[in-house]
Amino acid sequence: NIGGLKVKAPVTLAGVEVGRVLDIYYDPKDFRAVAVLGIYSQYDTIPDDTFAKILTAGLLGEQYVGLDPGGSEGVLKAGSEIAVTQSALVLEEVIGQFIYGKAQEGAK
Questions:
Q1: CB atoms near residue 37 (< 10 Å)
Q2: Closest by CA position to 67, among listed 88, 46, 40, 36
Q3: Closest CA relative to residue 35, chosen from 15, 20, 47, 14
Q4: What pLDDT, in 10s, does the model give residues 2-27?
Q5: pTM of the model
């Protein structure tokens, strides 16, 4: 789930912008959304076991892609796929779960 991620959103690693989201599309073969990331050339040593997650800047801010590097000696190449990802945390779902939990507590 890409949530509200948009094309041109920042891609960060350790809080530093290392690229931008170039494209977002739906892959009907795998039934999933795909975000194509453009990594700036000076950051060409990102490990190939890097973990990607969609984060939000602040409580209601824009969404962006955060990269957590792994420990591999191999590096991501052009066209590589990041195998481990975490979907966007959708605020409405979190609020709904919180309200539902409070309602359950009140019913006891």
A1: 19
A2: 46
A3: 20
A4: 888 999 999 999 999 999 999 999 99
A5: 0.77
